[in-house]
Design goal:
The chain is an all-alpha fold. The chain is built from 3 helices and 2 strands, in the order E-E-H-H-H. The chain has a two-stranded antiparallel sheet.
């Protein structure tokens, strides 16, 4: 069984009695071998396409739940979507978890991720004078 220049298998023929195989027998065996080769190749291609389809579906599902979690965190903490993504990613890294599993926990289990406090001089009042009477 050959596909192009690659051998992909063998077809064995058996008989219940000792015999010589005729030219017609061998021609029929070749047709069977060619058909079997076609089935092997098509089955392999189908499996490859199915695996790719499953991988793409998994990526799409991951992206959906990550987007949902980003939106929930952005609304909850009044932060940008990019900051919400950074929050998700940071939590995943600190806890050695996948981004998808953290996003699923936020969306489905109500995981609360507290934003990191802003470093001094970077908050919403950065660069503004302190109100009178306040202590720095």
């Amino acid at each position: 069984m050959v596909l192009g220049q690659t051998k992909v298998g063998a077809l064995n023929l058996y008989s219940d009695q000792l015999r010589d195989w005729s030219g017609d027998d061998l021609a029929i065996a070749q047709v069977l071998a060619d058909m079997a080769t076609g089935y092997l190749v098509n089955g392999s291609e189908r499996d490859k396409h199915q695996r790719l389809n499953e991988q793409l579906q998994h990526a799409l599902d991951s992206r959906i739940v990550i987007e949902q979690a980003k939106g929930m965190l952005a609304v909850t903490h009044h932060i940008s979507v990019q900051a919400a993504f950074d929050l998700l990613r940071g939590h995943a890294r600190r806890h050695h978890a996948s981004l998808r599993s953290v996003a699923e926990a936020v969306v489905n289990l109500g995981l609360w991720i507290e934003p990191d406090p802003a470093p001094p001089g970077t908050g919403v009042n950065a660069g503004k004078p302190a109100p009178s009477g306040s202590v720095n």
